[in-house]
Amino acid sequence: MSVLPLDAADEVATEPVPPARRRRGLPGFLRRPGGVFGAAWLTFVIVASLTASLWRPFEPGQQDTANRLALPSAEHWLGTDPLGRDLLSRIFSAGSLPLLSSALMLVVAFGIGLPLALIAAERGRRVERVISRVTEVFLALPATILLLALIGVIGNRLYPVMAVLGVLISAAVYRVLLGVAQSVRQRLYVDAARVNGLGSLRVNLVHVLPSMATVVAVQAAQLFGIGLLIVAGLAFLGFGPGEPEPSWGFMIQDASGYIYTSPWLMVPTGLVLALTVVAANELADALAGKAAAARGTGRRRRPLRRAVAAAAVPAGAPADPAAVLEVRDLTVSVDDGPDLVTGVSFSLRKGEVLGLVGESGCGKTMTARSLMGLLPDGVSVTGGSIRWRGRELAGLSEAEIDRVRGREIAMISQEPMVALDPMFSIATQLVGPIRRFRGVGRSEAKRIAAELLRNVGIVDAQRVLKSYPHQLSGGMAQRVCIALALTGEPELLVADEPTTALDVTVQAEILSLLRALVRDTGLSVVIVSHDLGVVADICDSVAVMYAGEVVEAGTAAAVLDEPAHPYTMALLGANPHVPEGEPVPERLASIAGTVPPPGSWPTGCRFATRCRFVQEKCTVPFPVLPAHGEGSVLCTRVDELSREHAVWEPEHAGDEIASPLAPPAPVAGVSS
Amino acid sequence: MLAYVAKRLALAVGTVLSAVVIVFLLVHASDTTPGAVRAGAGATAEQVAAENEALGWNRPLWVQFTDYVGQLVQGDLGTSLVDGRDIAADMADRLPVTASIALFATLLSGLVGVFLGVTAAVRGGRLGRLITTGSGVALSLPAFWVGILFVYLLSLQLGWFPATGYTEFSSDPLGWATSIAIPVLTLAVGGAAIIARTAAAGMREALTQEHIRTLRAMGTPRWRIRYVHALRYASVPVVSTLGIQFIALFGGSVIIENLFALPGLGQASQVAASSSDFPALVGVVVVATVVVVVTNLLLDLVVAALDPKVRTP
């Protein structure tokens, strides 16, 4: 077939792989069944074809007139053709021509496409434009018909024809490789190499080319298969080696004439050709690692282990009768993997704003998303309870929680620019939910949409309604997202880092909008943030999270003014925002190390490895202690620290350099 | 927008001109002269020379080229060296055959491929893997081999469709439909496989987008998320691939028309190539390039209509 599915190659991963990340030992593609099959069959066909003259049982032209059109037998393993010639011998005698000419096509295609891509990526915009325009023209030429025209002119010569096809295909190779080369060049290590004075050729050879190896291999495997199909197609049309020389395409053409009497004849040749092309494509897929991506998309949720039991048992702390949301001992885990969040408890009253604070990777987003059953695939709530106005949300089916989403609990997310559907206008995206939630007609829904937009501070509501998401600024998009969240008149809003992606001035506007909504509508809000400024600005209460658990909770004023947990102290010390009227500190505090990943949390205090006040007793488990009135703190030394008036001080100048050499100070024992 | 259209048009004209230049140079680089082809085998050197003189072959290359382009813009593609028929009229007869087969094959590929790809992406699991593997095999099968298989099954065994030959639509619409059924099915096997892969990849990507999570957070019904929002997102790559498929199937028609004895462009190019009928060769290349270029232009318009980012500032 002369189809050139080059663009199917675009969906294959074209991500460059940095050299450092490559694994040792068995190459990745040989760990997949498709890759093993592809590599094995291709090796077999290539070796068997190139050595055919050494082992074939018959000469390809040798006629066994007594055995014409024979089925497979002990003598002729794959049967014979209409002249009684042995099919096995003919198939593998015919193999080397398509294999070698496809290889020639590959060499030409990459010999032109690869250097062009490297040059275009290196020389910048103008050169890239010129080369790209020329290749676009090449891509738009009808390759098959041009090849036939070429044959009409130069005659039936396969190698030059395939070389010309290589030239035509180099345009497609260039296009794919250009993208890769450009993204590799943007990597920092390539810049670093250039700064270090490596010449252009060496940068390409040492850094860019190795990163492109996977993509080149994927492309080469795919194009090889296409080349085989084209050679066979040409031979099928009679533009191959003439009789009595065997060729795959002509053998299939020959078989088509005997399909009434001997349908078997088309099976062996067709199968060998098809298997070889399948093998090339399977190898390409395995190289691209796509087989893995295709797996595991089916949604499978582990049933809730402990939720129901936990909900039945009275929770440790007395439930707040005024709370609308009561989370108790919430555990979120990766299916068959580590826990991400453990034993998280908090409650929220109507009209109250709760902040979940902590560094990245501390489980605050997972906690927030579990409130709406929106955990990523492969992650689920495995224990504890989420009571929303007396109803248990943990363990609800998708259909059941769908009735809560939007109507009772709504969400706004971190990235307003991608949170709206890019394919639909704002009006469409608002009118749909309004009609669904409020049961109104289209024109009434439109009116409500405009009103909602005005309520979130959008003056030019009509224009915004007609816009598409990409036409909005970040702040405007977040306002639209808030309006969207309000379409179902929810009572709880879960806001996951609602201002992180926005400019500072816009951040303040969005926060004051949220504050106004809470004041005017009695909305309750759970706001996730790493920014203590946001928390101080808007929250009534706060839960500080570290490594999947709440380490300190209480009213925002109490926690921020008199932090009891060393982690909270450290966060406050590292906070660059200074309340008005206070002197700007000369240095900010820092917290050495990073949050330990799930699955490698220490027993006892999870902050112990980074805490300046760590002692022996911190490494054994200890209970949550009450603090800040109704709040809590998870630190076994909390009373001692409070007596000592411990403060998480900024490092003195020079400490960063001195500390690795200095012996550990008595209080800052564990710093590694 | 206007500048964009102008640029696309310039590129389109440039592409057609490049194709003309390439085949023109090819023909002139050939050992065979048109005079030899017209005079036929066994002609004397004088007869060949006289034919070449009559055809204007001995004039400077650029004169012949400007002459050809001048005729081309008037829709004149010259006459065949072999039987003297008018090439433009011949192409006009043949284009609908090839175009209709490629078009129906593209539509069928689109329907089947989108259905399979979306199923694979949405259902996942064993069915998804089966579709992924099956489409991987299907797109590797040689079309001429699949064609023979279909003839064996659908024509010889089941007797549903004729094995070869072409019936004019105007003379017998039903006969026309059955005469192109097997060619269309044959081309659609590989096409559907490629579309299925594109659609599956597009849907998988779409379903992981942030805006899909927003929709879920709004309690949007699952069918709506999948078949309105995610499918719309995946439609841009699918439609682009469909356009490329049409072009590829158009080229693939050479083999299919040979196999099923269909009087289309592919058959014309094969005949012209084997008989060195230069004007016919150039004609086929020009017509095929125009089809490709027009398809690409239409494709751009469709993508612009689908994707607001392209359509609006």
Automatic annotation (TrEMBL), chain A:
Family listed: Belongs to the binding-protein-dependent transport system permease family. Belongs to the ABC transporter superfamily.
PANTHER family xref list: DIPEPTIDE TRANSPORT ATP-BINDING PROTEIN DPPD (PTHR43297:SF2), OLIGOPEPTIDE TRANSPORT ATP-BINDING PROTEIN APPD (PTHR43297)
Membrane topology: Multi-pass membrane protein; Peripheral membrane protein
Domain ABC transporter intervals: 325-572
CDD domains for the chain: ABC_NikE_OppD_transporters (cd03257), TM_PBP2 (cd06261)
Molecular-function annotations in GO: ATP binding; ATP hydrolysis activity
Keyword entries, A-Z: ATP-binding, Cell membrane, Membrane, Nucleotide-binding, Transmembrane, Transmembrane helix, Transport
Name of the protein in its database record: Peptide/nickel transport system permease protein
Automatic annotation (TrEMBL), chain B:
Domain of life: Bacteria
Gene Ontology CC annotations of this record: plasma membrane
PROSITE patterns, alphabetized: ABC_TM1 (PS50928)
Localization in the cell: Cell membrane
Every ABC transmembrane type-1 domain range: 95-303
Transmembrane segments: 101-122, 134-154, 174-196, 233-260, 280-306
One GO-annotated biological process of the protein: transmembrane transport
Chief location category: membrane
One Pfam family it belongs to: BPD_transp_1_N
Membrane topology: Multi-pass membrane protein
UniProt similarity note: Belongs to the binding-protein-dependent transport system permease family.
Protein name, UniProt field: Peptide/nickel transport system permease protein
Source organism of the structure: Geodermatophilus obscurus
